[in-house]
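Entry: TatD family hydrolase
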Amino acid sequence: MNALIDTHTHLYTEEFDEDRGLAVIRAVDAGVTRLFMPNIDDTTVEAMLSLCDAHDFCFPMIGFHPTSVDENWKARLQTVKQYLTDGPHRFYGIGEVGIDLYWDKTFRKEQMAAFEEQVNWALDYNLPLIIHCREAYPELLEILAAYKQTGLRGIFHSFTGSVEDASQLLEYESFMLGINGVVTFKKSTLPEVLKNVPLERVVLETDSPYLAPVPYRGKRNESAHLVKVAERLSEIYGIPLSEIAAQTTENALKVFTNTEKSF
């Protein structure tokens, strides 16, 4: 069995309340050996930590999602930060953070400010940054440009962009592109784009419960389905599944350096 790492899964959300334990078992049975769990906002931290406390192969991350930014974002962001600075838990990344202008541009400036603050958390605590970006590449790159020569590392989560987008993001040499079930969709342009992306810059993710790969598209996603993403990459890169598993695992551990000694 090929060992895989799901670098982005939300198994702690309410969509899994009926069978969370079984979903974890199915992931392990499928060969997914590490599950990295990005937080969403101040309302989700406890559920995430509870799941991660129960399984030593689940790694919590802390952050404030851009679509949660509202008029009270400063106070809510501070609540999240207290888990990082004052809590007993160890975190393995800052995420899920970023900018999302797809649904609503009302809090554009506030999203940018929240993102930049969390970029600095990543630098201050030497943690990888898990970046969500939707319809906001100009804003994202405007902020990141100032940090290009720093030690910032991380993942551009759920990458679905063009060859040009990939080229711009890959200029950040300590970042990987997170590839999920979208790559299996019939009309996805990702397979062609990835032919211009070295496998050494790719990590696997599910983003469960969202973006289930074919043949599960339209249903709830879960970490066990990561195998379908890896199989599609095997087809795209023309190499055995075992090599996809080995390289993407190596890539993930370059990002999550503080988990290497956990195994």
